[in-house]
Amino acid sequence: MAAAGGTAAEAGLRKALQRLEAAENKLEKAEAALQKAEESDPVDEQWVAKAELGIAKAKVGVAEAKVGVAEASGDAVRVAEARVGVAEAKVGVAEASGDGVRVAEARVGVAEAKVGVAEAKWQAAPEGEEKERLWILVERAQAPLEALRAAAPPHGQVAAERE
User: Fold this and answer.
1) DSSP character at residue 125
2) Count of CB atoms situated within 10 Å of the CB of 40
3) Which of 53, 107, 63, 103 minimizes the C-alpha distance to 83?
């Protein structure tokens, strides 16, 4: 049963696109704030750093909105690829905050998201040689993730060291 303005899926996509547009507007405002901070005389490094963090956070918002658009499309591979964008944007936030532990954790998130892309492609593939080849790619994508996890301190230890 279609609604007056289209199907529920179309309505979900429209809403996701509106969220993306709003997130992109926030990013533009954050970029303008950075430009203003950089052009101040004298330049206030703390203001610049805060503006750079604002841009990084706005990029996370844009990436998350892209996940919403991908989810509305119903394409699992696009969703997984969009989640890589979110994870990469979170690395930017961690780098802007200057917290090395958060950067490392965010990089693990990127590796996990990349494994998610490989798995989504494998699941979407028809049975046969292509599916077998894609499984090998899943296993290859898991290797750097396992290396990052092995190099990280045990969960909970980081929080104890910060205190």
Assistant:
1) S
2) 10
3) 63
Task: Specify the pTM.
Answer: 0.79
CA–chain centroid gap for 75, Å, is: 17
Q: What is the DSSP string of 43-105?
A: --HHHHHHHHHHHHHHHHHHHHHHHHHHHHHT-HHHHHHHHHHHHHHHHHHHHHHT-HHHHHH
Residue 9: what pLDDT? 82
The SS3 of residue 9 is helix
Q: pLDDT (tens digit, 9 = 90+) per residue, 41-83?
A: 898 999 999 999 999 999 999 999 999 999 998 899 999 999 9
> Alpha-carbon torsion 17, 33, 50, 94, what sign?
positive
Burial 99-115 (b: 16+ CB within 10 A, else e): eeebbbbbbbbbbbbbb
Q: Please count the other Cβ atoms lying within 10 Å of the Cβ belonging to residue 138.
A: 17
Return the bridge partners of 26, or none: none
Q: Which residues of the chain have pLDDT under 50?
A: 1-3, 158-163
